[in-house]
Structures are given as C-alpha cells and as structure tokens.
Design a protein that fits this description.
358 residues; alpha+beta; Rossmann fold; OB fold (Dihydrolipoamide Acetyltransferase, E2P); 2 domains; 23 strands; binds adenosine-5'-diphosphate; binds magnesium ion; ABC_transpr_MalK/UgpC-like; NA-bd_OB-fold; cell membrane
C-alpha cells in the first residue's frame, strides 16, 4: 500500500494550453495518506476521471509529478504502479467464466492455484456471485458484469491502491448499498489506500473518511463530511452538499456584522476589509423562522419531507431555505428568518474567509 503524492500536477488535453481554461485539471498539490479511504466528488466534467487516470498511469500529466511512497512514478507504466482500477462500465473477458475472470489478476501475478481458488471464492461471496462462478461472462447482465469488474478490482490484497471510477452506475439501487458496504468492510479489513469517484454526495459521504470535492478542474475542499457541512471552503461545496444546499446571500461585511439589503446579520467571527464579491452562507439547518426578529422574507412554500420540513422563502429575490422539525408550526405572522451566528460563513469571491474569533 502506498502514500500517493501529487506534486504541482496539472493536465490539459490540448498540446499547447494557453490559459487556465485549457486545463481539465488545474494545478494541484495533495497527499493521499496511506490506508485512507477517499471519495472524489464533483459534477460531471469537473476532472475526476482525468485525475484518477493520471494516478493509475493511463494518462501522463502535462505538468508535475506523482510519487508512490516518495518514489517518482510519473513515467512508470500502469502495470508497474501495481494498482487496481474499476471503471464505470464493465471490463470483463466474455469468453472466460466468472471464476477465471476473478482469478485473472492473481494468476497474472503467479499466485498458486490453491490460493487463487480460496480468494476467488471469498470475492464471489462478497459480490454475491457464488452460484454463477462457472458461467461464461458472455450473456450475463451489465449489472452482473460490473460486479465481476468490482470483484477483479478487489481480488488482490497486495496492490498500492484501489481506484474506483463511478463503479456503481450500472448497478441496481438495492445492490448499490450492498456493494458499497462490502467496499467499506474491505477497507477496514485490509486498509488499502482507496479513491472512490462519484457525483453522488450520499455515496461520497457514506463511503469515505475524507471527501475531496472538485469543481471545474480544481480541488476546492478536502475534508471530513462534518467539515464539508459546517465550513464549506467554497460556495460550490455549500450548494453541492446538503439538501437543500447552503443559502448564499450577497452582503457587505464589517467586523462582526453583515448587512444584507439594509438588514443586519450578526456574525460569529470578525472580519477585516473584504474585496470583490462578498456573500454570507448559511445552511438551512442553521436558519429558523421567527415572528419578531431577523430578515424580512416571503414564505413561498412549506414541504413536508418526512423527518423534517423544508420552508422555502424569498428575500429580495434571493432564495432562503430553512429546515424545521417535522412538528414545527408556522404561524401567519412568522415572516422573518434568523440565523445562528456561529454557523454563518463569510465568502469573498466564492472562497470562505476564516475571520477571527470575536
Ligand atoms: P469527470 O470524470 O469529472 O466527469 P473528466 O475528467 O472526464 O470529468 O473530464 C474533464 C474535462 O476534460 C471535461 O471538460 C472533458 O470534456 C475533458 N476531457 C476528458 N477526456 C478528454 C479527452 N480524452 N480529450 C479531450 N478532452 C477530454
Ligand atoms: Mg468521469
């Protein structure tokens, strides 16, 4: 297993990139700790596969170095990197049986047949395909083939890292949960360095110790699910994670007071002079309706979503969403919104400003 270091890494698919916009992956420095499970989260096209393929060696970066445990592998072929990678769509040998497909990576590495048989049995149990071991892969459903791909990715214990690129896309919803649980237990058992790419926040937050959020070719935050929730480093993280996402409101900030459309909002921290576009960000969980104080809003709609209510309001053209308890009563005179000052984040040009303890 390995620690993976990305040193000044960047990639453009153009031969002569001219500006930052030409880079699918903008400059990145990051260390993936040995034995940690990471989710790489971001919307389609933000550069997740590009980054993963650079780590596995399928793609050579236009700039920078990749180190496995301090050894430079930037120019090493995929095979030399000793990595297992599972792709979004199945990659299986159709003419081979399920058993031979699963055994392939082990035989390739010259493991003895007794070990191969044992390990294949174990993996078949994990992916729920013990009964199909002697069937040819040809003719199996896409779902079953993808389970074989996953199994092949998990079969070797001696890999440097396991990389998964949206591996559950073609898997049915029930089995998704089951396989994700298996991947997690595999991680607990063997402690592989794992990188799991997904565009699904639930998948990312339930799978990983740390979530790496990408936006437009850039890593915008690396944090625990709690950090992403409480202190989104970029407004994108605020919108993308959470349901509904963080409320973002244009503001002027001075010291520990924000002014939004003439109303004052108390902040939990103090701020110096901020340049550019200034906004405050508050998660719906830290906002509540009030009859007496707070920002004057129009209540548009109340959605009952079972465990809680989502109250949709509008404040001078900006949406402000509130999450309230399922038994909260909403009186006709409750047309103000109050924020918990400790959970109001301040953003300048979309990046969170740390501020100072008040
Ligand atoms: P993701 O996996 O997050 O959906 P990708 O890494 O596949 O994103 O793509 C990032 C960007 O690079 C996208 O704008 C995509 O169109 C572009 N891109 C991906 N692969 C290639 C390629 N082989 N040639 C040119 N552009 C590419
Ligand atoms: Mg992709």
């Amino acid at each position: 297993m390995a620690k993976i270091t990305l040193d000044n890494l960047a990639h453009s698919y153009f031969p002569n990139p001219k500006s930052e916009d030409d880079y699918a992956l903008k400059e990145l420095n990051h260390v993936w700790n040995d034995g940690e499970a990471y989710a790489l989260l971001g919307s389609s096209g933000c550069g997740k596969s590009t980054l993963l393929n650079i780590i596995s060696g399928l793609l050579k970066p236009s700039q920078g170095r990749i180190l496995f445990n301090d050894q430079d592998v930037t120019n090493a072929a995929t095979a030399e990197r000793n990595i297992a990678q599972v792709f979004q769509f199945p990659v299986v040998y159709d003419t081979m049986t399920v058993r031979d497909n699963l055994a392939f990576p082990l035989r390739n590495r010259g493991r003895d047949e007794r070990y191969v048989a044992e390990r294949v049995q174990e993996i078949a149990r994990m992916i729920g395909m013990e009964a199909e071991l002697d069937r040819k892969a040809r003719g199996l459903t896409a779902d079953a083939k993808q389970k074989i791909s996953l199994g092949r990715g998990m079969v070797r214990k001696d890999v440097n890292a396991l990389l998964f690129d949206e591996p559950l896309t073609v898997i049915d919803p029930h089995m998704k949960w089951e396989l994700r649980t298996q991947l997690k237990s595999l991680h607990h058992e063997f402690g592989h360095t794992m990188i799991y790419v997904t565009h699904d926040q639930t998948e990312a937050l339930t799978f990983a110790d740390k979530v790496v959020v990408m936006y437009d070719g850039r890593v915008v935050q690396i944090g625990t699910p709690q950090e992403l929730f409480e202190t989104p480093a970029h407004t994108f993280v605020g919108y993308f994670i959470g349901s509904p996402g963080m409320n973002v409101i244009p503001a002027m900030v001075e010291g520990n007071i924000a002014t939004v459309n003439g109303s004052r909002v108390q902040l939990g921290r103090g701020y110096g002079k901020l340049d550019g576009k200034v906004e405050i960000g508050v998660r719906p969980e830290f906002a509540r309706l009030s009859a007496n104080d707070g920002l004057p809003v129009k209540v548009r709609r109340v959605e009952d979503v079972g465990r809680h209510k989502i109250i949709r309001t509008e404040f001078f053209g900006t949406d402000i969403n509130i999450i309230a308890g399922e038994d909260a009563t909403i009186g006709p005179d409750m047309n103000r919104v109050v924020f918990d000052p400790a959970h109001v984040n301040v953003y300048a040009n979309d990046w969170r400003v740390e501020g100072e303890a008040a």
